[in-house]
Amino acid sequence: MTFQKPAGLDFDMATIGDILQIVFADIILSGDNALVIGMAAAGLAPQHRKKAIAIGMAMAAGMRIFFAVIATYLLAIKGILLIGGVLLSWVCWRFYLDLKEFNQASVDSIDRAAPEDANVSGKSFWRAMLTILVADVSMSIDNIVAVAAIARDNTELLIFGLALAIAFMAFFASMIMRVMVRFRWLSYLGLIFLIYLAVAMLYDGLVELSFGLS
Questions:
Q1: Contact 94, 40 (CB under 8 A)
Q2: What is the pLDDT of residues 76-101, one digit of tens each?
């Protein structure tokens, strides 16, 4: 008795290997993006946190869709990771300044923010949005370049990687925000990790650029 493979399912070992690589890349890179969104939201007043996560998620998803559409052109740009690394370095600097300010106050003092602090809260919200936007651009470039490099000309794999990245961000961002609010000192560990990512992107971008010029 023989079994026929269902139509539309054309998985070989190479494709399965690519899928596993995409899943791993998305867990790491989407987790990084979720970390930025969660850290930025944790520094805001409670009434703004869910809004910041929702907007940050929407921007990250939009960036990934946009960069996925132009993925072929992105891969052709020499030093694209260097650009992403520079943007992420700026995000790290902004986070360092924000953490110095926000971590001076306890969570309880933030929760009891007075009505007269509304203007300050609004400024902090839009500052957090700018930080998230720049991080979304940087990390979306990194994520899509990584997934596109794995998927190559397979559009289905690229779409799969894109959808999975957005799903992972939705899962991780709120969770990270709650942890950061409860354990404020963890924000500095997150910042150290982001600095490591920025350095790695800058290094990879310089290596890619040097090979392109040689």
A1: no
A2: 777 777 888 888 888 888 878 877 76
